[in-house]
């Protein structure tokens, strides 16, 4: 598990933004929503932006999280999506 200090700075539950940056794929936003649904079921909308050369895609999603561990789990699971370079 990650060793973060989110619990020092946030009050739970809270809406938390995740930005997933990966190789360009038309399925990336769908994959992000699928992972989030597994850990925090709900209706989600994403916003996406393609890099200037079209090589990368960033997908932003806000998730209602309930604990520091919930955030850490989502970071780990989102980072495991094939083609993902960073989760911010």
TrEMBL record:
HAMAP family: UPF0250. Gene3D superfamilies: 3.30.70.260. Belongs to the UPF0250 family. It comes from Shewanella fodinae. This is UPF0250 protein EDC91_1578. NCBIfam families: PRK04998.1 (NF003447). GO terms for cellular component: cytosol. Pfam families: DUF493 (PF04359).
